[in-house]
UniProtKB/TrEMBL annotation:
Protein name: Cytoplasmic protein
InterPro entries per UniProt: QSregVF_b (IPR024530)
Pfam families: QSregVF_b
Domain of life: Bacteria
């Protein structure tokens, strides 16, 4: 896991959809699960959504909490 990718989770916003404008790290689990079942989009946003899904699904949100405080 690349630390720079974790940093992106707390700085990048969702560019479209129901949660447009919300930080990737703040997306609800059910939304991330929906993407996992339907397929993540291509590109950086898709990779970040997949990473956030893994973090959320495995209860590892504490990994990104220190990055929020910067």
């Amino acid at each position: 896991m690349n630390p720079e990718h974790l940093e992106l989770l707390v700085t990048r916003v969702m560019p479209y959809g129901k949660y447009k404008g919300r930080l990737i790290a703040d997306l609800p689990g059910h939304y991330l699960n929906w993407f996992a079942s339907q397929g993540f989009p291509t590109g950086e946003i898709g990779r970040l959504l997949a990473l956030m899904h893994e973090i959320d699904h495995n209860g590892l949100s504490s990994l990104i909490e220190p990055l929020r405080k910067r």
